[in-house]
Amino acid sequence: MRSLNGIFHSRVLIFSLSFLLILFANYYQTSVNRPVVSLSKEQTAFNFSIKTLKLTQFGHSRLTSSLLWMLTLLESDIEHYKGKANSWMYYRFKTIAELEPRFYLNYIIGGKYLSIIKDDVHGANELYSLGLEEYPKDYWLSYHAGFNATFEMDDPELGLKYYRNILGTTKLQRESPNLVSLINRLRVSHEDIDLEVAFQSVYEVYRSLEEGDIRNHLEDTLYSIRAQIDLTCLNNHDDHSICKKQDFFGNGYIYQDGSWISRRPWKAFNFKKKPR
Q1: 98 phi and psi, to 5 degrees?
Q2: pLDDT tens digit sequence for 67-107
Q3: pTM reported for the whole predicted model
Q4: In whole angstroms, how far apart are CA 125 and each of 100, 103, 110, 155, 268?
Q5: CA dihedral 65, 71, 75, 80 (to 10 degrees)
Q6: Closest C-alpha among 115, 109, 117 to residue 93
Q7: CA dihedral (116, 121, 126, 128) positive or negative
């Protein structure tokens, strides 16, 4: 009988201690401020070894690349990459290209994502180059590779190299007539580019995209070019009737302390090659 009472009391003691620990844990959870650990996708992303994938996919490279493509899209983020090498998404897209070189969407969508959203412009250029090795005269790959080089890398000479693939095509005349003027100016001199032509060229890319992150990010470029054109006109001409007084979003410019300014920050557009 004593042994049974001992077991009973032991279990009551264990239960009581457990209950007290739970209460303490709950109090600690709700009352104590702990530092928040925030890691970017760039720090947590896992990139697959191409050698390992080739050894384990057992001839199903198309299936493996498709699964990796879907996983990459599900994990995608919209943070600009500021490192010295390439973003995590570049390595994913490059791995997919090595598994399935004819995977066209990987080049066209991956390139636009790297260029406009991730700001990994050199990674985008390499991906477009890989795509053009498989599709040498493809219109849209050449079009977006030229756009990335000219407007994102600020390298019009490289942009012209890509644009030459589509110069003279009926599709260029039909799809992007303003781009013809830009290409012709690039051929003569990239130091004297009409910003209105540049604006229309960027706007055509913007207009061709569906609603989403890529299209939204192009708005910053369009806003900057529009503001540069309009504010230069307003601040340098007495006759303001020849100048536009509304920015890209339809908001009026502000006259303050003797000069016209925009409602939001913008950076001047120029054709100056960015260092690697």
Answers
A1: -75, -35
A2: 888 887 887 766 766 666 788 889 989 999 998 999 999 99
A3: 0.71
A4: 19, 17, 11, 11, 23
A5: 10
A6: 109
A7: positive
